[in-house]
What we know:
This protein is an alpha/beta fold. The protein has one domain (10-67). 37% of the residues lie in helices and 19% in strands. The chain contains two helices and three strands, in the order E-H-E-H-E. The protein has helices at 18-29, 47-59, and strands at residues 10-14, 35-38, 64-67. Strands 1-2-3 form a three-stranded parallel sheet, with helices on one face. Helix 2 (47-59) links the parallel strand 2 and strand 3. The N and C termini lie far apart (36 Å).
Amino acid sequence: MTVWPVLIVNADDYGMHHDINRGVRYCVENGLVNSVSVAVNGQAFDKEEAAALLQLKKRYPDLSIGVI
């Protein structure tokens, strides 16, 4: 049995600024990252951004999302 290493590429600080959110979404959509950390108390995390993140999760079910 061969065990393959796993590389996790995480994008931090979703929710800190709208430009960061846009950049994180771009990276997910283009296969550059496979994990996102969300700053739920960030100034740019509101219900619209939460909805956008949930849509990403639906489109990319292997996307991991963590909360910081």
